[in-house]
Design a protein that fits this description.
The protein is built from five helices and five strands; from the N terminus they run βααββααββα. With about 160 residues, it is α+β, with helices and mostly antiparallel strands. A five-stranded antiparallel β-sheet has the order 1-2-3-5-4. Helix 1 runs antiparallel to helix 2 and helix 2 packs antiparallel against helix 4. The chain is globular. It starts with 16 loop residues before the first strand and ends with a helix.
């Protein structure tokens, strides 16, 4: 008697569908990520989330482009009936470690006279949840992941 083969873990533990986009770290990356997410949300009947999702993904991809030396920016999107979760990953490490982590650590404390530093506060105000992570199981110590989840109003209850 042989034991059955193990079942692989689903790519999207929340159910639904998972999508990935890998972009070169160029000035056009935020626009391409925004258009990609707009298309996914349009076909998955999440029209009410498109504006917030576009704003949030633009912020995260722009941060990766402007504040890291990553050669590629990865956008992972998980979509189910009620929610969408977007994760933006870079693997290049920050251009300026103190500035990059200072930005993550004090993103919600930008003063009224500062010209930047409000992007993650905006993500926090729009998302059901958001967060950051470092590393890739030890294999990629400079890898940074920033993610957010948006949902329909009934999903937030």
């Amino acid at each position: 008697m042989t034991s059955p083969a193990p079942t692989p873990a689903p790519t999207n533990p929340l159910g639904g569908e998972a999508y990935r986009l890998t972009l070169p770290n160029t000035a056009t990356a935020p626009r391409i990520a925004r258009d990609f997410l707009t298309s996914l949300l349009g076909v998955s009947r999440h029209m009410g989330l498109i504006d917030d999702a576009r704003l949030c993904v633009t912020e995260l991809v722009t941060n990766a482009h402007c504040h890291t030396r990553t050669p590629q920016i990865r956008v992972h999107v998980a979509v189910n009936r009620k929610r969408v979760t977007v994760a933006v990953t870079d693997d290049g490490g920050p251009l300026d470690v103190d500035k990059a982590f200072g930005t993550l650590g004090t993103a919600l404390a930008a003063g009224p006279e500062q010209e930047s530093g409000r992007g993650l506060a905006l993500v926090e105000s729009l998302a059901l949840a958001w967060g950051t992570g470092r590393g890739g199981g030890g294999q990629y110590p400079d890898r940074t992941v920033v993610w957010f989840t948006l949902g329909r109003p009934e999903a937030a209850a």
